[in-house]
Amino acid sequence: MMLDEERIDSEEAIAALDSRGALRSLATAGAQVREALTLCEEAGIERVGGGERPRSVLVASLGGSAVVCDVLELLAEPGSPVPVSTRSNVPLPGWVGPLDLVIAVSVSGRAQGPLALAAEAGRRGAALLTVGAADSPLADVCARARGVHIDVAAGRSSSRTALWSLLTPVLLAAGYLGIVDATPALLQETADRLDDRAAVCRPSSESFVNPAKILASDLAEGVPVILGDGPLNGVAATRAASMLARTARVPASAGELPDDASQIVACFDGPYTAAFGETSARPSAERDIFADPYLDGPAGPRLSLLMLRDAPPDPDVPETMTPEAAQAEALADAVVASARETGVRVAQVTADPGHPLVRLAGQIATTDFAATYLALGLGLDPAVSPHVANLRDQAGG
Which residue(s) pair with 60 in the sheet? Predict the structure, then answer.
């Protein structure tokens, strides 16, 4: 892939190609959080489930909205008193009933899976929280079930760029119910981190200093594999792979340490690395600079590794200096070293310190911007895919 750095450094070129303002929408992530907090207050989100903790929570989401459940599960995992699960389409599990909470998320309020699941949950008497467009079928279903609907503000048309409009109400509701640690103050702090990343990754920041543009350039050099160093960055890796595929049209796989270490490292022996076919015990990681693409054929695609890493342990905060944290850091270092030895291009993004949600927000923001810059640098409109549009037409809209 050939990324045009001049194009992503030109605000005029970006404006001409980015037909729906994807970069501008990503830059509003912090504003989305604050806006959603206001909308939640106006809608009375504290009324969800009658203010009573449910027996379980099921999140109905799909596509770009699926990360909403991933984040909720991540934050609930350490000590949630209730299980959290996800579903993208009917049937609604048989165990869902009046003691449970169903959360349905859809920017348009028309996605068939969440809409059908919300309708069935209402028929069974489950508590219902919906997040989506005002005056939509999803809002109507919620009203009939006497649930709580949170509007997505006008102008939010894509779940890829409106993530925080969808995620904020879900986290705030879960915070009120005692399922996760998510207060208005924490969400304000998250908004501040998102604002910081938007400023650093702004289009006017040139390629050699803009971390998202640098990352886009690195990702353009090969076939990306994205690896998170633990559960938090595992969520960020899944989101990054989705954004690369849907926004930059680049296929990417994602994994999480330690479970996925072996299958990722095994690829370092394969045909997408410089080590493939080498017989020496320590193969050369360098490409042959004298290779003639006309005589020898074009070079094949190479594997690249994007390692998403958590903030390093702080010696002044004893609870961060755990054996588990040290082991995770050592394993990530070992994977990176192995990748470099076999000629795999390595990029790393390390979270800044803060609450887990704040750290995650920074990681997602950086990779979201990088995927969008990659699309623009390849000459693609990040918001419009002709093949996706054709598929929707063939499927009947």
Answer: 87, 104
Distance, in Å, from the CA atom of 285 to the CA atom of 58, rounded to the nearest integer, reads 47
For 370-391, give the secondary structure using H, E and C. HHHHHHHHCCCCCCCCHHHHHH
SS3 at position 310: coil
Comparing CA positions, the residue from 163, 166, 171, 164 lying closest to residue 150 is: 166
pLDDT digits (tens, 9 = 90+) for 24-65: 999 999 999 999 999 999 999 999 999 899 999 999 998 888
Strand partners, 304: 224, 345
Question: Which domains are delineated in the chain?
Answer: 22-191 (3.40.50.10490), 200-286+298-377 (3.40.50.10490)
Q: Which positions ≥6 away from 375 have C-beta within 8 Å?
A: 247, 248, 249, 381, 382
CA–CA gap between residue 97 and residue 115 (Å, rounded): 17
Percent of the chain with pLDDT over 90: 76
Structure tokens that stand for 252 in this block:
């990417």
Q: Is the pLDDT of residue 179 over 50?
A: yes
Question: CA angle 9-15-16, nearest 5°?
Answer: 105
Q: Do residues 375 and 249 touch, judged by C-beta distance below 8 A? A: yes
Burial 88-104 (b: 16+ CB within 10 A, else e): beeebeeebeebbbbbb
More confident residue, 304 or 324: 304
H helical segments located in the chain: 5-8, 11-17, 22-27, 29-43, 67-76, 112-124, 137-144, 163-176, 184-200, 211-219, 231-247, 261-266, 323-341, 356-377, 386-394
Q: In what order do the strands lie in the sheet with 57-60?
A: 84-87, 57-60, 101-106, 127-133, 148-152
The confidence score (pLDDT) of residue 174 equals 95
Q: How many CB atoms lie within 10 A of CB 35?
A: 19
